[in-house]
Q: What sequence folds into this?
């Protein structure tokens, strides 16, 4: 008489242990990648918000020019040089919805941005090259703008050192 062995319908213990081990390795690897993916996502969101600032910045600069005049705003911004000097400073909220001047012609206190919400620092320099240089009475003020972040970490009043900030640069023109 010939006996036949039937194949069991389930998995062996070794197959289950190997499957669980592979699953554990995969989950551990994905959890290890999570912080770096989150950092990249935050950086790209901040960069996108910084690139959305020119329109809001133009509105704030026009407000500042309306209060003190375009000539006064041109005098407040320092010439653009190889070594960037202190100049006209503005700040923006992290969502780039609001921009406010820090030192020259600041908005009314109700429109100012709370210090712990000041995420972007905006620096404006005027050009000093002949074609773009501004002199009082000119109809256009051409500015070089640097947006750097994080200026202040949310919830902290301490400023982030300039060497630890990311930044984008662009040019902007204001008409009289």
A:
């Amino acid at each position: 008489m010939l006996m036949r062995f039937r194949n069991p319908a389930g998995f062996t213990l070794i197959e289950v242990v190997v499957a669980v081990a592979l699953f554990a390795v995969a989950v551990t690897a994905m959890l290890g990648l999570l912080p770096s993916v989150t950092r990249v996502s935050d950086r790209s969101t901040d960069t996108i918000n910084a690139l959305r600032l020119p329109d809001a910045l133009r509105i704030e600069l026009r407000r500042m020019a309306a209060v003190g005049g375009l000539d006064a705003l041109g005098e407040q911004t320092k010439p653009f040089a190889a070594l960037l000097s202190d100049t006209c400073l503005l700040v923006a909220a992290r969502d780039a919805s609001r921009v406010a001047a820090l030192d020259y012609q600041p908005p009314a206190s109700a429109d100012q941005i709370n210090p712990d919400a000041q995420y972007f620092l905006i620096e404006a320099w005027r050009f000093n090259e002949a074609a773009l240089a501004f002199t009082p009475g000119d109809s256009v003020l051409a500015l070089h703008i640097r947006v750097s972040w994080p200026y202040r970490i949310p919830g902290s009043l301490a400023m982030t050192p300039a060497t630890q900030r990311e930044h984008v640069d662009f040019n902007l023109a204001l008409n009289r």
About this structure: The longest strand covers residues 140-149. The mean pLDDT is 86. Strands lie at 88-92, 99-101, 120-126, 140-149, 166-175. Helices lie at 13-51, 53-68, 70-76.
